[in-house]
Fold this sequence. Notes:
The chain has about 140 residues and is α+β, with helices and mostly antiparallel strands. The chain contains 3 helices and 6 strands. β5 and β6 (about 125-135) form a beta hairpin. The termini are far apart.
Amino acid sequence: MSNTKNTEESQDSQESADSRESRDQQAPRKTREQTAPRRRTEKDGDTTDSTTARKKPKPMEVLRQARAQLAELTGMEAESVSSFEQTSEGWVLEVEVLELERVPDTMSLMASYQVELDPDGDLTGYRRVRRYERGRADSRRSSGR
């Protein structure tokens, strides 16, 4: 009895292997090039592999992306960007953030964060460089402004 059962199981497994093999032969396999993400180029509208050089982001795109990424990481919304510079390593921004809201508003605590991004606009690091009350004049600068 057990020999009959083993024979039936081996036939079933052979049939399922045969059906998988025929299904694999019918469905064409996708090559790596076919499954790689495609990107449109601005120059001619053709599609190219994602391994080619990406289009350099515009400054306003970098600003928006930096503010969004900083807000996501810190949970605080950026109120303004006080400096913005493109460097050989990417981008450096100084972003003003409301850290602690107080009444009256002039007593709220603000902070300046230095935000660093790579050439594509992805955040690579940030740090708080100063903290101040919203209503206070900046005493660090000697230019009198």
